Amino acid sequence: MKFYVIGTPIGNLEDITYRAVRVLSEVDLVLCEDTRVTKNLLNKYNISTATFSYPSDNLATDTKFEKIIKLIEDGKTLALVSDAGTPTISDPGSVLVQKIKEAFADIEIIAIPGPSAVASALSISGLPASDFTFLGFLPHKKGRETLFKEISVSERTVVFYESPHRILKALESLVKFTPDRKIVIARELTKVFEQIVTGTPADVSAYFNSNPDKVRGEFVVMVAGK
Ligand code: SAM
Questions:
Q1: How many whole angstroms from 84 Cα to the centroid of ligand 1?
Q2: Relative to the CA of 87, which ligand 1 atom is closest?
Q3: 185 CA to middle of ligand 1, Å?
Q4: Most exposed of 25, 41, 157, 220 (fewest Cβ within 10 Å)?
Q5: Could you please report the per-residue DSSP string of 145-212?
Q6: 21 lines ligand 1 (CB under 6 A)
Q7: Of all protein residues, whose CA lies closest to atom 13 belonging to ligand 1?
Q8: Which CATH number fits domain 2-112: 3.40.50.1110, 3.40.50.2300, 3.20.20.70, 3.40.1010.10?
Q9: pLDDT tens digits for the chain (226 residues)?
């Protein structure tokens, strides 16, 4: 019994391994977030495997979980992907993997490694990356300020994900809590308008405030340690 967890591109559809393409074409079903996103990827590689949108982690009692468990019981081999990057990394899938492990003591859960925005961003940041703190998405309200305080005393590089709706607010907080730290923003990695912006929080904030056309796409924020 095998269950695959497969990393897929974070933008550029060429960023997929030979092994991922082979496994995606061999499995019985691909569990995904948005079937349209995954079908777009599968079509590029002429993969005709059926897709099934899996339940988010908040819906632990969703009947879709039961359906997935039943498919595995029936001997089907499934693969899990997310819309972009590595499943479960700031993405749903953790509860599913946990439940499958609980339900089948002898199942082999196999990682097919692929891109993740956090690793890609750090690799080109020029910041120390031997060890770092990854915060995923910051909470929108409760606990947000506490995290910025934690970032301000961190001796390690801190990395977090941010949406275009909140990036200016996040930069404002970095100006307040970590004014002297070097920060690096990686935007739209692997895509046509990929961009890296480096500087103090004030520099980077000024840049994005005066270039509203750049406040779009996906962002990874990296803050140098103390
Ligand atoms: N599972 C994904 C991974 O392994 O990186 C992360 C998915 S999370 C829902 C989406 C967030 O990841 C975006 O808001 C952004 O912060 C980051 N991200 C994903 N793709 C990106 C890209 N091409 N460039 C920069 N950041 C990206």
A1: 7
A2: 1
A3: 12
A4: 25
A5: HHHHHHHHH-SSEEEEEE-TTTHHHHHHHHHHH-TTS-EEEEESTTSTT-EEEEE-HHHHHHHHHH-G
A6: no
A7: 218
A8: 3.40.1010.10
A9: 999 999 999 999 999 999 999 999 999 999 999 999 999 999 999 999 999 998 777 655 678 888 999 999 999 999 999 999 999 999 989 989 999 999 999 999 999 999 999 999 999 999 999 999 999 999 999 999 999 999 999 999 999 999 999 999 999 999 999 999 999 999 999 999 999 999 999 999 999 999 999 999 999 999 999 9
Indicate the pTM of the whole model: 0.96
Ligand 1 centroid from CA 97, angstroms: 20
Q: Is 201 in the pocket of ligand 1 (CB under 6 A)?
A: no
Q: Which tokens hold the place of 150?
A: 């934690």
